């Protein structure tokens, strides 16, 4: 179903535009499934589509000389590829599906035309891109300024916010590669968090049990990034209890 009404969208950017603008976008939006490890964009390749994420989680990464470092997480409140608003025609990041889900995608040329015709669409996307730019810059600073425990706590909180879930399907190996940390160090930190009752670990799954206490372990970057998204005036729902999801804002 193409989203001509608010009841057919879960992405908060799409849900925030007027019904008239949403109806105008509807014919150009294509619903797709997101598979784990699916690559949506490659660096230095032309941007073809913008993906409005409905569920799941996408990792933005810088890739160079066989190494990679995550710079942002995008979930149901964001759009992958929206950075084309900054004027570039090619992707500067690799965008990879971290948790499977769904999205609506739109061709960049169609979205550019709609933005030229409809100021509200352009304004909502511009606000989001400003927050995403801060997210990327803050994560780069975090990697060189903050210790392992704070960085991992921040990542868990950001992933929980972006996916609206306390259940995060990820592994120690994956976290170590995303954050550029030694696997043994990641395991040590996660064991410490589990001993304190903040999380529970299972095979391929991390469950957050004490979210407020986990936030207290996170570095200041988490609040700065969270507040940046909140300042876009796009409603961000509270995270549901473990295993559940709140209805998305419509």
Which features does this protein show?
250 residues, alpha+beta, Jelly Rolls, Arc Repressor Mutant, subunit A, 2 domains, three-stranded antiparallel beta sheet, 9 helices, 42% helix, disordered C terminus
Shape: globular
The CATH architecture name of the largest domain reads Sandwich
Beta content:
15-25%
* Radius of gyration from the alpha-carbon trace, in angstroms: 18 Å
Largest sheet: 6 strands, antiparallel
Distance, first to last CA? 16 Å
Tell me the number of structural domains. Answer: 2
Derived structural class:
alpha+beta
* Secondary structure tally: strands: 9
**Number of helical regions:** 9
Task: Name the average pLDDT.
Answer: 86
CATH fold-level assignment of the largest domain: Jelly Rolls
CATH class of the largest domain: Mainly Beta
List SSEs in N-to-C order. HHEEEEEEHHHEHHEEHH
Low-confidence region ranges: 234-250
- The name of the CATH superfamily of the largest domain reads Jelly Rolls
**Residue share in helices?**
40-55%
In terms of topology, how is this protein built?
Elements: H1 12-16, H2 19-25, E1 30-34, E2 39-41, E3 49-64, E4 67-74, E5 79-80, E6 94-107, H3 108-117, H4 119-145, H5 148-163, E7 167-168, H6 172-179, H7 183-195, E8 199-202, E9 205-208, H8 211-217, H9 220-230
Antiparallel strand pairs: 1-6, 2-6, 3-4, 3-5, 3-6, 7-9, 8-9
């Amino acid at each position: 179903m193409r989203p001509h009404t608010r009841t057919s969208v879960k992405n908060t950017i799409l849900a925030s535009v007027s019904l008239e603008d949403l109806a105008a976008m509807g014919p150009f939006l294509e619903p797709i499934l997101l598979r784990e490890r699916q690559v949506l964009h490659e660096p230095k390749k032309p941007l073809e589509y913008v993906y409005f994420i409905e569920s799941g989680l996408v990792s933005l990464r810088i890739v160079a000389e066989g190494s990679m470092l995550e710079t942002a997480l995008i979930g149901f409140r964001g759009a992958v590829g929206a950075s084309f608003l900054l004027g570039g025609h090619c992707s500067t990041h690799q965008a990879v599906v971290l948790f499977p889900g769904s999205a609506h995608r739109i061709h960049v040329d169609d979205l550019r035309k709609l933005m030229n015709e409809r100021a509200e669409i352009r304004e909502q996307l511009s606000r989001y891109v400003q927050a995403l730019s801060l997210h990327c810059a803050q994560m780069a600073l975090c990697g060189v300024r903050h210790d392992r425990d704070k960085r991992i706590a921040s990542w868990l909180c950001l992933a929980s916010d972006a996916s609206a879930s306390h259940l995060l399907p990820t592994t120690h190996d994956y976290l170590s590669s995303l954050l550029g940390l030694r696997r043994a160090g990641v395991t040590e930190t996660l064991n410490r968090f589990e001993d304190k009752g903040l999380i529970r670990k299972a095979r391929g799954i991390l469950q957050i049990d004490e979210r407020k206490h986990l936030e207290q372990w996170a570095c200041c970057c988490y609040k700065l990034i969270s507040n940046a998204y909140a300042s876009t005036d796009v409603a961000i729902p509270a995270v549901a209890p473990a295993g559940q999801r709140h209805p998305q804002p419509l």
